[in-house]
Design brief:
Elements lengths: L5 H12 L3 E3 L4 E4 L4 E5 L2 E6 L6 E13 L2 E13 L2 E7 L2 E8 L2 E9 L7 E6 L6 E7 L6 E5 L11 E4 L13 H10 L11 E7 L3 E5 L5 E4 L5 E6 L6 E6 L3 H12 L13 E4 L4 H14 L3 E5 L6 E4 L2 E4 L13 H10 L3 E6 L2 E3 L3 H8 L13 E3 L4 E4 L5 H17 L5 E4 L18 H22 L7 E4 L6 H4 L3 E2 L16 H9 L6 E2 L1 E2 L12 H12 L5 E2 L15 H16 L1 H14 L4 E2 L18 E3 L3 E3 L9 E6 L3 E4 L4 E4 L2 E6 L7 E4 L5 H6 L12 H19 L1
Parallel strand pairs: 19-20, 20-23, 23-27, 27-28, 29-30, 31-32
Antiparallel strand pairs: 1-2, 2-3, 3-4, 5-6, 5-11, 7-8, 8-9, 9-10, 10-18, 11-17, 12-14, 13-16, 14-15, 15-18, 16-17, 21-22, 24-26, 25-26, 33-34, 34-35, 35-40, 36-39, 37-38, 37-40
Helix pairs in contact: 4-15, 7-8, 11-12
Length: 726
């Protein structure tokens, strides 16, 4: 007979033996003089005792240093006290518990509902002398935990702790590698396993419950103990904990998505093909489009970051952060936007919430007091890597409306762009800054990217363009799910490293998937090329293979375009890339179906295996595979020079996509994986079998093109890259 879990056994014993037993509308609460157990149904949430208290309180002094979006956070902890004692008062549904240590750090929590959510633990009476809290939830040794925002190093968070502070994800992100060492030595930008653009104090458990904290201050999710999960919050007001359970992991993720919010449907134009990240001016843009036509590349849009002009730094080519059309760089752009839209091709661009002090928009914002201020009342100006910018103060209603109306609406939407990358949001410092609202920067820092997302959403909705315009973001926090239209994984290294390369985009997508951010993508080929490392053709094509089976396929030239292999770098690459875009386009009806499931049912596009196989223990351990919708299983090739792969198939009847061979699930299998043919399987019972079979009908032979035209385009591209890099 299997062992009854410790929490359930404790609950059973206390239910039988202890007085009183109180059951309110949300929680089952059982207690005696020394123990307290709180559960939702049969799922234990809290198991408080003298040996393992639910709550700790204390005092700490923090120091937060920032440079280029990288943060060094340290603390002097003065005291941490276990609140062993508790008293119970009230009656259902207003049922409260006061914790203390012999009267010290007295803290009251309310168990019940806040009107919108049934399972809420609210901190209602806080100890005046505490500015740190540690909250423990019951755990089982074999439990798996996911979420924490966008986590790149681990999908299953168990066994690790995760500080939650939005920041640059870091270069390399593995302290044992030479790349991260060099990055740290250069500017402190190496990162670590937990650094992320999009943290969130939310997680889901394989015990089929979720937990969300509504705080925005620095916090830590700690899953290192076998018997409890601990959440550390640097505040004197922990706010509310939201908890809920579901009978299946699928229903749990749907519940959480409904609670946090999900993204709207993608624009119809995006389904046509790939988004080509290209630069160089109007003639270059049109040349790339014509080249794509010649090679049979399916194009939904072109993405021209440099619509505002260029600067060059030691990091590489950067944009001139003055968010208005640079007519010298892109002459006649307004007319070409109209022509391309008639052809069904969108033009996308770039923006962030900072302004270069050398631009005219900076001067307007500075004169009107729209920037975050120094304590002396001057505009706060920060170094963004050899150029200096002001930060728009989102808490100033006049500044917020000016940026939304005069820049996003007038300079971008009204000009005719179909969308943009809404970059950054994670750099907000906590020292020497003052906000219009008077709020503390430690409270605003994590909220900032979600406010930035809200501004973009309002601009699109107020222009009547929701469903037509797409913007995608890297930074986020609670609220970003309901305000963004698409997320992307940020600046991966141009390699196959688990910490920061192509593989890291899979845990990132899956951790976001369980938290409502169900539409995500990544830079095909990665972005950051430093310390002698540059993108290879193999990396470009392997990442393109994976992008076929995501909602959005978008290339990026990277920070050093001339050093990175591009989709247009050779005739052979162009042909191979064209085939990948054709595969992506062939899946259009299925992808629309998957996106509709996200919009209507709060289901992510890329899904962890356990969402549809939650009785399979192996499904909870699989970090680098995913289900695309319900019916496709994707296991991207994530290592160099790899031509075969071992992977896990859950218990189902599967068909190998590339040769229509039946394969039984419930086991590990080894399959061939030559370049261009990543391991992908479809369910034999799927109603989309005909669509999947058509993927094999996509021509394996490249489209024939004029060699003279190809040579001309490549030569022109290289010449322009050299010109704009000089």
């Amino acid at each position: 007979m299997e062992r009854l879990c410790r929490g359930a056994w404790m609950l059973l014993v206390l239910t039988i033996c202890c007085e009183p037993l109180v059951v309110n509308s949300a929680f089952n609460v059982v207690f005696d003089e020394t123990t307290l157990t709180v559960s939702i149904g049969s799922t234990v949430m809290i198991e408080h005792s003298i040996d393992s208290p639910f709550l700790f309180a204390g005092v700490g002094v923090a120091d937060i240093e920032e440079y280029l979006g990288n943060f060094v956070i340290s603390e002097y902890l003065e005291e941490r006290v276990a609140l062993h004692n508790f008293t119970v008062s009230g009656s259902s549904p207003d049922y409260s518990v006061t914790f203390s240590r012999n009267g010290e750090y007295s803290t009251t929590v309310q168990l019940g509902s806040d009107g919108d959510h049934d399972n809420v633990i609210e901190f209602t009476d806080i100890a005046e002398d505490a500015n740190r809290y540690w909250i423990r939830l019951f755990a089982e040794p074999d439990e798996h935990v996911y979420g924490g925002g966008e986590q790149f190093s681990y999908f299953d968070l168990r066994g690790h702790d995760f500080p939650l502070w939005t920041r640059e994800q870091g270069v390399g992100r593995n302290k044992s590698t030479i790349v991260t060492f060099y990055a740290d030595q250069n500017d402190g930008g190496g990162g670590d396993y937990h650094t992320t653009y999009f943290p969130e104090p939310t997680f889901v458990s394989s015990r089929k419950f979720y937990c969300h904290f509504d705080t925005s201050v620095y916090s830590v999710l700690d899953f290192r103990n076998e018997n409890f999960h601990e959440v550390e919050v640097w505040t004197n007001d922990p706010g509310k904990m939201y908890l809920d359970t579901a009978p299946t992991m699928l229903e749990l993720v749907q519940k959480l998505g409904g609670f946090l919010g999900t993204m709207p449907a993608m624009p119809e134009w995006l389904y046509k093909g790939a988004v080509l990240g290209i630069q160089g001016g109007t003639d270059a843009m049109l040349g790339y489009i014509e080249q794509a036509d010649e090679y049979g590349i399916e194009v939904s849009a072109v993405w021209i970051q440099d619509w505002v002009g260029r600067i060059t730094t030691s990091f590489g080519r950067r944009l001139f952060w003055n968010w208005k059309w640079n007519e010298e760089q892109y002459p006649n752009l307004d007319k070409e936007l109209e022509k391309l839209k008639e052809r069904g091709i969108g033009v996308l661009t770039y923006i962030n919430p900072y302004l270069n002090r050398e631009g005219d928009l900076f001067k307007i914002a500075d004169e009107n007091g729209y920037f975050v201020k120094t304590p002396e009342g001057d505009s706060y100006v920060a170094d963004f890597g050899e150029f200096f910018c002001g930060t728009i103060d989102f808490t100033n209603p006049a500044a917020y409306d000016w940026y939304k109306n005069e820049i996003i609406k007038k300079n971008m939407i009204d000009l005719g762009f179909s969308g943009w990358m809404a970059d950054f949001g994670e750099y907000l410092p906590t020292k020497n800054v003052v906000f219009h609202s008077g709020e503390a920067p430690e409270v605003l820092h994590n909220q900032w990217p979600a406010i930035w997302a809200r501004m973009n959403r309002e601009a699109v909705e107020e222009s009547g363009k929701l469903g037509e315009v797409l913007y995608w973001m890297r930074a986020g926090y609670t609220g970003s799910q309901k305000y963004s239209t698409m997320m992307w994984a940020g600046d991966q290294f141009t390699d196959f490293s688990r910490g920061d390369g192509l593989p890291s985009t899979i845990p990132a997508a899956l951790s976001m998937a369980v938290l409502g951010a169900g539409l995500t993508h990544f830079d095909v080929g990665g972005y950051t090329a430093l310390f002698g490392l540059a993108r290879s053709e193999e990396l470009l094509l392997r990442s393109g293979e994976m992008a076929v089976f995501t909602p959005m396929m978008r290339t990026h030239e990277g920070n050093r375009p001339s050093e990175n292999w591009q989709y247009y770098s050779s005739d052979g690459t162009l042909r191979k890339f064209a085939r990948l875009t054709q595969l992506h386009h062939t899946l259009v009806d299925y992808t629309k179906h998957v996106v509709e499931e996200h919009v209507n049912q709060s289901l992510p596009a890329q899904r962890p295996l356990f969402l549809h196989y939650d009785n399979d223990p192996e499904a909870y351990k699989t970090d680098y595979q995913y289900l695309y919708g319900r019916d496709l299983l994707v296991a991207p090739v994530l290592d160099e020079d790899q031509s075969s792969m071992e992977l896990y198939l859950p218990n189902d009847d599967w068909v190998y996509l590339w040769n229509n061979t039946d394969i039984d699930g419930g086991k590990h299998v080894v399959v061939d994986a030559p370049l261009g043919y990543p391991p992908v399987f479809y369910k034999k019972s799927s109603s989309w079998v005909d669509t999947f079979k058509r993927l094999n009908d996509v021509s394996k032979a490249p489209t024939l093109v004029s060699k003279m035209w190809s040579t001309y385009i490549i030569a022109l591209t290289i010449a322009m890259v050299q010109l704009f890099s000089s």
